[in-house]
Amino acid sequence: MEFSAMVARENDGGIVLARETVGEDFLGAGEVTIKVHYSSANYKDLLAVTPRGGVVRKYPIVPGIDLTGEVIASGTDDFSPGDQVIVHGYDLGVARNGGFAEYSRVPAEWVVRLDGLDTRDAATIGTAGFTAAMSVQALLDRGLTPDDGSVLVTGATGGVGTVAIDILSGLGFEVIASTGKTDANDLLAELGANEVIGRLPLDSDAKPRPLNKANWAAAVDSVGGASLAYVLSAIGYGGAVAVSGLTGGTEVPATVLPFILRGVSLLGIDSVFLPIEKRRALWAALGKELRPRHLSTIESFAPITEVDSVLQSIKSGSHSGRTVIGVAGEF
Ligand SMILES: NC(=O)c1ccc[n+]([C@@H]2O[C@H](COP(=O)([O-])OP(=O)(O)OC[C@H]3O[C@@H](n4cnc5c(N)ncnc54)[C@H](OP(=O)(O)O)[C@@H]3O)[C@@H](O)[C@H]2O)c1
């Protein structure tokens, strides 16, 4: 069996991503073989092709932390040829070959059968959108309701941000979107944001305060860094922040005061090692009650041959929403 893949190889201290014809050895071990329809572009895929990006354990590798497609062979009764599936997380695209290839073989316990979403919708949601859904679910599980007040979403035009806004507004929450992009108001309003503000803190030169006026009941934060410290200082009594990302940095210069004086909670969100039963249940919800209503607004499309330039647009900060990478028929 021979097929096409985008392979990332180390070269002179850099990493080169290029199309190659590869063989069965690129499929690896597992019970389920999938013809890949779509992958997507995630921040982590950019790190996979960035020297010292810190996510890939060993090169060469086929990046692509998301893949959706059709089962073509299965060594387990749990899946049958023709099943429409998504695989993301675990080692995919970081420690074993991922979605930037025509075929993939994975362990059955990584595979989610799609219900209520086609393979393109699921790729639009992808890891980033799934992380948004996990963040919203964590706030709901903590008892948050629209009556509690508004919910802040940082990194609003990003993959996590756009899907979080869409899901939250669909559930009836008042949503405040924080973005660094000055031309994103129309997009964010279309997704359901009630108000758009700049990146936080709004005055980056002001001396940080441990507590600020309580502005929001809760937040979905994929930015981290000084932004997260500010967000924590302005969450209302008993509120919570679901934290998934680090685009604004890993150091969080916060104090304990929001936690001990306002009972604020920090909810850690990790999509990578979420156990498969919880993963399948949340994908089922994404096809029903948590289904984002504006996937066509959030989605852009690029063929696999253009994936490198899409990843570079994430690096330059010009990317917004979710870019689906067409794989089948696009090499
Ligand atoms: N925990 C998990 O399982 C998990 C899963 C998926 C993603 N993540 C993480 O979540 C983060 C977002 O992922 P994504 O896929 O949504 O990425 P993305 O599509 O690239 O979006 C990130 C957004 O962050 C904002 N941003 C970028 N640079 C920034 C900076 N220097 N300071 C503040 N904001 C900045 C931008 O939004 P604006 O221009 O609108 O401000 C950007 O659109 C990443 O750190 C990613 O690694 C974690």
UniProtKB/TrEMBL annotation:
SMART domains with a match to the protein in the record: PKS_ER (SM00829)
CDD domains to which the protein is assigned, alphabetical: MDR_yhdh (cd08288)
Residues annotated as domain Enoyl reductase (ER): 14-325
SUPFAM superfamilies for this protein: GroES-like, NAD(P)-binding Rossmann-fold domains
UniProtKB keywords: Oxidoreductase
Protein EC: 1.3.1.95
InterPro entries noted in UniProt: Acrylyl-CoA_reductase_AcuI, ADH-like_C, ADH-like_N, ER, GroES-like_sf, NAD(P)-bd_dom_sf, Zn-ADH-like_protein
Keyword Magnesium assigned: no
Molecular-function GO terms, alphabetical: acryloyl-CoA reductase (NADH) activity
Pfam hit, one: ADH_N
Domain of life of the organism encoding this protein: Bacteria
NCBIfam families the UniProt entry points to: oxido_YhdH
Annotated protein name in UniProt: Acryloyl-CoA reductase
Species the sequence originates in: Nocardia halotolerans
Top-level taxonomy: Bacteria, Bacillati, Actinomycetota, Actinomycetes, Mycobacteriales
